[in-house]
Amino acid sequence: MKGRDGSIVIAVLLLVSFAFMVSPAVAEWHGGKALVMYRTWSPSDGWVQYNYKTSYNWDSFRAELKEQNWSVDYAKHVNTTMLSNYDALFVLTPRENIPDDEARAIINWVLEGGQLVITQNGTGTYANEITGTFGITFDGYRLKMKMTNFSTHPVTTTPFTLTEVRGVTARNISVNGTSQQIGFDKKGRCFLAVNDTAGKGVVVAIGDEYMWSDWMFNCNDNEELLDNILAYFKRTCSVPEFTTLTFTIPVFGLLSVVFLLLRRRR
Questions:
Q1: What is the pTM of this model?
Q2: pLDDT tens for each residue of 120-171
Q3: Of 10, 26, 29, 43, which residue is the least packed, with the fewest Cβ within 10 Å?
Q4: Does the CA dihedral 140-143-145-148 come out positive or negative?
């Protein structure tokens, strides 16, 4: 009997040792951290449409992110290491070819669980370099975007039920695979799409970004669309971080129980 007791103790000790050797898993939730791409003009740097970091025309957008309890950083360029620190990335309308290494870093980040909002207006279809991987394609140009029909999806219903979202110089969207079209104009053209199974991540694609400028932010349900996206990201990504400590505490508890049982049997 003593030999069996000793084996139990040894097994538990090995389990504890293993816990210390295990590296912490990558956290899937950073408490609501967003990264927004931006550009500057003097000197010219960055590949998205506007200076979303400091331009006065984007004050409402920046303020709403903070009001929804997201901490926000801004970057002109990204890489794999940088992206690993964030829960959400906003790529608001690329206006030139995206550097290959940055596009690949964003794609891989989404596949590993990142949550991406990406828009493309009439300046081109550069966003397809990223969204094509996830079955979303920006194509036909429209002078304006006016979505009045919405499919049922958390992005269109929670916490706000969208009835109308407006933008300008838009691109309509086609999808394939697991992507869904969820926002349409009265003629059935899609300007809002989502892929909920983009690897482990989520992609929300919109045919314009200007609906979040100060000129249009409070028009119709433009602000509510942003709030719905942020709320959806929190629900889909807010999982507890797994660390060596969270694994070790239960093991020590088990070890204590084993020793108590052994003492009572003597």
A1: 0.81
A2: 999 999 999 999 999 999 999 999 999 999 999 999 999 999 999 999 999 9
A3: 43
A4: negative
